[in-house]
Amino acid sequence: MKARRGCGRRCRGGALAEFGPVIWLFLIFVLFPVLDLISFGLGVATVAAMASLGSRQAAPTATFGDAKAAAEETEKQLVSFMRFANLTPVSGNTGVICTVMVSPAAGNAPATIYSFAQKDTIPIDTNANVYQYVVTSQYNVLPLFNFSSIPWFTNVPALGAPVPVTYSAQVLVEHPGGLTSDVSKN
Asked: In the chain, how many domains are there?
């Protein structure tokens, strides 16, 4: 039988020399993008939770002004989640918009959306119309690790560029009589 000769130090040294470049490639192309993807998912879930919880808090209010304040209060309650998920409002100071959607009960005509743009009143007819609060949250989800300085990732959403996320939730108005004040038509 012949004795096997090992390769000695030569084999072990080559593997150790390749470990440095491989770990950097793994961090840049696998680990950090996966963490950014998880962070993006958390941001989308936070935007959806703001709209959903805002609409639920707006439903039992007596007036549209109270409904808008309740929806915006949800944003203040979830501010720690917003910071953790790297969210910034798309426009303005708030990313939560509350409107009223009036749909015909028969379903034969399009719905009308009301907000605070112009002073109008909503005709209240609970037999002919269905009234809903629509709470929309609009935010940019910023990447956890910003790769905009790396040429391949500069314009890639969620890695080098923020991603605009919009989510809307609808809920029936519990007190449609309170919609006659402070509402305007879009």
From this structure: 1
User: Which contacts of 180-183 are long-range, i.e. CB under 8 A and separated by 24 or more positions?
Assistant: 180/121, 180/122, 180/124, 181/63, 181/64, 181/65, 181/121, 182/63, 182/64, 182/65, 182/116, 183/64, 183/100, 183/114, 183/115, 183/116, 183/120, 183/121, 183/122
Domain residue limits at 82: 11-185
Note whether residue 2 is domain-resident. no
How far apart CA 77 and CA 135 sit, in angstroms, is: 16
Q: Which of 14-18, 30-34, 107-111 has the highest mean pLDDT?
A: 30-34
Residue 48 lies in a domain: yes
3-state SS track over 19-68 = HHHHHHHHHHHHHHHHHHHHHHHHHHHHHHHHHHHHHHHHCCCCCHHHHH
Residue-wise pLDDT tens digits, 104-128: 888 777 888 877 554 566 778 888 8
Does a structural domain hold residue 58?
yes
Task: Judge whether 5 lies within some domain.
Answer: no
pTM for the whole structure: 0.78
Higher-pLDDT residue of 2 and 30 is 30
